[in-house]
Design a protein that fits this description.
Elements (H helix, E strand, L loop, with lengths): L4 E5 L9 H14 L3 E6 L4 H10 L7 E4 L4 E4 L4 E2 L11 H10 L4 E2 L10 E4 L5 H13 L4 E6 L3 E6 L4 H12 L6 E5 L13 E4 L5 H4 L6 E3 L4 H15 L1
Length: 240
């Protein structure tokens, strides 16, 4: 019996970014169903991702993880996964106040925010700047995870909630083990996916924070965008 896999992939600059590559990925996935289930995992919310599916060659996913892990939707009806996120000691208003008063940060438009995700544009922050934001958020009494990526995008999430923990929860819902989870990404907010002991795929156009990952469970692709996702997925499936 063929082993089945859950492919959890970032979207922008991973599955999207090269139209020909996206089409090739869609054809590859169609030939692999039902051996491979697809979950889109993005900083964007589900409604935005479904618009991309409708307007591009992106294939229909089996699930969506949106809002940097704060949202899990199960297809085809896109009902939220019950009990997610499991939030304790979270106050989005307090986080907004901290970011609104911080230097060099600007809250993103409301369409990019939710009760469990507070995001800002923050250009060229240093590690010390990020640690100071973490300190100020903790001083406001909020247990949070701060994710900074692409030298611009700052996401503050409930503690323990991110792209990786959401992927683990979805995999558990469907009964996949660590060796049956493939994760693909290109930037810093994907790092959490590479810390869950899944089989990693780093596309060739990835940012340095992922290109420097060195593990026998992380495959560094020679090809970019969705071409790389196909390359990495074939690598891990062949090793199964």
């Amino acid at each position: 019996m063929e082993r089945s896999f859950l492919l959890v992939s970032d979207v922008d600059n991973t599955l999207l970014g090269d139209e020909e590559a996206t089409k090739r990925f869609a054809d590859w996935l169609e030939a692999r169903r039902p051996q491979v289930r697809l979950a889109l995992n993005s900083g964007r919310f589900g409604s935005s991702l479904l618009q991309s599916v409708a307007s591009s060659a992106l294939p229909q996913p089996d699930a969506i993880i949106g809002g940097v892990g704060t949202q899990i939707l199960i297809g085809p009806d896109w009902e939220p996964l019950a009990g997610w996120p499991p939030v304790i000691d979270w106050d989005a208003g307090a986080v907004r106040d901290v970011l609104a008063s911080a230097p060099r940060t600007e809250l993103q438009p409301e369409e990019f925010l939710s009760p469990y995700k507070v995001s800002a544009y923050a250009h060229e922050l240093t590690d010390a700047d990020v640690r100071e934001l973490e300190r100020r958020i903790a001083a406001a009494g909020v247990q949070a995870r701060v994710v900074y990526s692409s030298s611009r995008d700052l996401d503050v999430l409930p503690h323990g909630i991110d792209k990786g923990s959401a992927a683990i929860r979805l995999a558990a819902y469907w009964g996949y083990g660590a060796d049956e989870i493939l994760v693909a990404g290109d930037s810093g907010n994907d790092q959490a996916m590479f810390s869950i002991n899944a089989l990693g795929i780093v596309v060739a156009n990835a940012h340095p924070e992922l290109k420097q990952l060195n593990s026998d469970r992380v495959f560094q692709c020679s090809r970019a965008y969705a071409h790389g996702v196909v390359e990495g997925a074939e690598h891990w499936i062949a090793k199964a």
